[in-house]
Every structure is written in C-alpha cells, then in structure tokens.
Sequence to fold (313 residues):
Amino acid sequence: LAGLAVTVEHPVLWLMPILAVYLAISTRQVRRIAAFLVGTAAGVAPLLAFNARAFGDLLHTPYSDYWEQQRGMAYVPLGLPQWDEFSRLLFSSLGLIPLAPVLAAGVGGAVLLYRRGLRAEAGVCLAVPAALIVYFSRNGAYGGLGPPRYLTLMMPFALLPLAAFLRRYPLTTLSLAAVSAFQAVVMTATGPLAAYDGAWLERAADRLFVSTAASWVGITGWYSIVPFAAAVCAAGVLGVASLPRLRVAAADAALAVAATGAWALVALASYNDWGRTPSSGYVLTMAAVVAAASAATLVLHQLRRAAPQTPKL
Fold:
C-alpha cells in the first residue's frame, strides 16, 4: 500500500524513510523489515514501468513536461525551504492554521501519546506533517490557488492523535473541529479552487454552489446541494453521538476559549496574495459563537452533575 501511494502521489516517497525507521524501531525482526521493503518496491513497480514505457526513463515524471511546456522552466523536485512559501502554507488566509485549527489539537494529542509511552507512534504523527510542510515550502511548490491541497497527504497522521486530545480536552478539540469543519464544508460546497478570492461566504449567501451528481439528470439549481448538507449534518450528529462519556472541566472550557481566541488572532493577521482575507466580523463572530457554546456546555454539564439523582426502584 505504501508503494502504491507513491505511484499515485509521488511526494509520498518522502514518507517512506519515516515509516521504515518506525518499523525498524517497533520491531527487531529482519523478515518484517524486508517484507516492507519488498512490498514497497512492488507498489512502486507500476510507476517505474509506466515511466519506462512512456518516456524511456524510470525516473521521469509528467510534471517535468508540464513545468517545461506550461511555465517555461525546469521542474525542481528538491529545493531549500523558503520562508515565503512556509508562511503561505501555515499563516496565510488559505493556510493550515486559519483553515484547519483542529490540527493544533492533533499536535497536542501527539504530545499526550508521547507522555503515555507511545513515543515512536507520536514521532511518526509529528514527523510526517513536518516533512511534508518542509518539502512543500520550497519555491513555487504551493500547489496553485486555493487551500494547500498537496498537504492532504499528512492528514491521516496529523489527525490520528486527536483521539487522545479529545479524551483529555473534549471542549477544546470540538471547538477547533467546529471552526475547521465549517470552513471546509462551505469551501467545498462553493468550490475549493475558487476559495482563493476570499469570497466563499458571499457565494454561499448568493446560493452559488458547485455542480453535484444531480446535474447528470438535469438538476442544477442551488437546492442540489441539499443532500450534501444533509450528509454533513448527519455525520456531525452521528459523530458526536458515537463519542464515549467525556469529562468536561473548567480548565478545558478555558483552554477552548483561549484556543479559539488564538485562532481568531491568526486569522485576523492572515494575508491573501490572490484576494481578500477573512473579514473581522466573520472571524469575531465565529470565535464568539464557539466560545459561547463551550461555556454553555460547561454550565450544562455542571448543572447536570449538581442535580439530585432520582433513586431507581
């Protein structure tokens, strides 16, 4: 599977050393390590065969031709990280922190895993996002307009530790997840590649949504997005309903408010090279709603605990 991932998304190649080191640390069996290497080679074999057949070069990629023909420059797969690109990936209005602050909870979860003794697993969950961010911080590697879609590769690793952080700080995790999910859903519904102009909220208000599968049968009105919205709502409700009983503490509520406020500060200070930044009204409203919801949840939890229990007959 790791080799096939490289075949369909070449930058996964830079994750192979991390996984190999993790395997070597977690198991001392030479046979398992050899099996991983052989399996990886088998998964990459289709890519090498295609390159050899199409280009006469095992290591040639179509990206090289794209850069040469469309941009008039050589494709550079490696390069030193550039601060402008690094800042764009993390702190611009289309960067990871303004768009997906829940990733910060993933980092906190990795720290908790490390303290529990799962040091190798925590290391992988931190090393994979760090490696991809550094790799795509080289000049011209942002991936075009819209959110940094190339960094999608890191999401399974970055979000896996959320389970540990959710158990310790449920309100903080859910608050950051609510901000992230709202923005992801609205941008998806209104066209993620069009989000570069910062007008995705306006498109939603004007009911300008992307075409859905209903367009195959001639249904193209704004209401065609309703099944998508219903599925999102169902996913949220079922996801919350599936959670175990979580302990809500005052410290967690305070951290939720602080984390949401920190996101608001970063979002207000963000920049956009191609369009508008999030309006202060939107950012402050989002932060206030999430903070109020966290405080209300804490109060309801405390009232429920203080209420006298009716004895069962």
About this structure: The chain has a mean pLDDT of 88.
